[in-house]
Amino acid sequence: MASFIPEEKIAEIKDACNIVDVVGETVLLKKAGKNYLGLCPFHAEKTPSFTVSPDKQMFYCFGCGEGGNVFSFLMKQQGTSFPETVKLLAERTGVALPEQRQTPEQKRRLSEREAILDLNNLTVGLYQKTLQRDPRGQAARDYLSKRGFRPEVIDAYRIGFAPVGWDNLTRYFERRGVPLDVAYKAGLVAPRRQGQGYYDRFRERIIFPISNHRGKVIAFGGRVLDDALPKYLNSPETEVYRKSHSLYGLDIAQAHCRAAELVYIVEGYFDVIALHQNGIRNVVGTLGTALTNHHVRMLRGYIGQSGRAILVFDSDEAGIKAAHRSIDIFAREFVDARILVLPPGHDPDTFMTKFGPEAFIEKAQKTKGIMPFLIDAAIERHGTSMEGRIKTLGDVAEPMAAFDDPVARSVYIKYLSERVDIDETAILERIRQVASTAASGSPEGRLVRMAPPASTMSKNGSAGSPIERQLVAMMLQFQDILPEVRKFNIVALIEDPMLRAIGQDVLAGEDSAVQAKDRPENEEHDTLRRLKAQLSLREEVWDYRGCLNFIHHFVATRNRQEATPLYEQIKQAEKDHDEERSLQLLKEKQKHLDRLRAYQKKLDS
To answer: FRET partner for 437 with CA separation of 20 to 30 A, picked from 132, 192, 422, 572?
Structure first.
């Protein structure tokens, strides 16, 4: 049986939420008139087209067509179902939900996510206590102290310690009645290779909790105290944790990234902490994986259109490899990314200890963009001989082809041409060859193209005539006119079924994007939601007299459209000398004229 959430509870949650606050947690929004603008979190764009309306409590992206209310935003962004989203927002707003009837799958997913998050929180407490007060944590305390990490920073990141032993955690869970199969799904224990039962995944390691942007622990990372391998061990992916969607320290860094419109991206846990305790708080760490589109898009939401990302690496070689891997992503997401390479033998921790944060910031201010960095690195590697210049072009042609922005590409071509003394036309031709190979789907091609904008058309390819869309936009944006629309039954004249459905919902005072029952996740409903958001947030200026004039115009236009084929049919019947058909059509014409006069009389009264 589908879950049932009372309509009044949904309305209460929606009224208690401010969509600007919810969206603003992950998207840098700036006031633009009565609305807010930001870069869309659902597609790559250079200029903000993502609009959030505090008045309508809706969002719409005029670039990709995604839109809706606070529920649909979180469902799209976090991949949660409608009941899960309602529950998340209920917890946020303090609205109590009644017991819900759920399908077995809904119960399983909800309970599993909640159980994992609760268990992770319990585990954090145990590991912290072990580090802070347990004699078995003395070696870890000494290690952290030797590396210069202060207690307040250790507390801020909730760092702990997993002591030696195969069953400390499993016995801890068993004493508290925690099912070990849940601990396994959380990635905290692993099944024994021989026999039954489980053993602790993390043993004799400093533990770094990994949190989502809301500060809820979703996974763990562990580091050994010596040179044993593997040096680092991370949780496996679970119901609540995906590496490609997670960054270490984001929960702490997000506000600082937003304020500075700048983010430092480092490789390890200690790198994040070293920068943080030296006053650089806008720093996040990758979790043993290359940067993904989702990572960059997520960070872009915090730093905004004019923001900058600085990738920090320990060596030229690491920086070059990372630049090659990530240039496509940063270029497609329109993020200004730069490379900071530390002196040989230094990581952020040792650099801070020796040179201090001022030297780090000064070095960061002199960083090069990814493309100039790659060009200079290739020239240094291959030299300026004839063969060296050809190899340099070969190294950088593919990264340069990643830039769709013709201005950026032109600037980089000019820079390369001056550095290697190769004609700009020849460089451009080589880049076009690389781009063509990539676009053709060749195995060597790695360039990613943006998906086409989401459609606001109905399945039959229609979304109504412009005048019908204008009418519904008027109803959504200027609801003082609704008594007149209702009085004259104007919605009945709308031909497009989706626009008519929105019009009927507006008159009924309902929100078609949220239903009391589980709403169907289908193409038609999604299209309806996007269309309503688009029409709600169109830039229009309405007043009462202008709306009445538009209704006059709409009715007159609709009557002309209806009359035209009727007149043509009458002419044809007369031409065919079909008196019976002519008489029938003349009666229809008279009815049409009577209906037009009745409408006109109402409008003029």
So the answer is: 422
Give kind and range of the element (H or E) at residue 388: helix 386-401
Residue 49 shares a structural domain with residue 171: no
Cα–Cα distance for residue pair 455/580, rounded to 1 Å: 46
pTM: predicted TM-score of the whole model, two decimal places:
0.73
Specify if 482 maps to a domain: yes
Coil vs helix vs strand at 355: helix
Q: Work out the pLDDT band at 466, boundaries 50, 70, 90.
A: confident
Residues 41 and 127 in one domain: no
CB 570 within 8 A of CB 582: yes
Q: Is residue 49 part of a domain?
A: yes
Residue 453 lies in a domain: no
What is the share, in percent, of the chain residues with pLDDT greater than 90?
A: 43
Q: Which of 456, 528, 461, 468 is nearest to 494 (CA)?
A: 468
* CA distances to 63, 80, 106 from 110, in Å: 33, 10, 6
Contacts of 491 (CB under 8 A, 6+ apart): 485, 500, 503, 504, 507
Distance CA 263, CA 255 (A): 11
- In the chain, how many domains are there? 5
360 and 256 co-located in one domain: yes
| Residues linked to residue 224 through DSSP beta bridges, in sequence order | 205
Residues 236 and 300 in one domain: no
Question: Residue 381, Cα to own-chain centre: how many angstroms?
Answer: 38
Helices (H), 186-315: 250-260, 269-277, 293-303
Q: Which domain holds residue 435?
A: 371-439
pLDDT band at 95 (very low <50, low <70, confident <90, very high): confident
**Terminal CA-CA length for the chain:** 52
560 and 506 share a domain?
yes
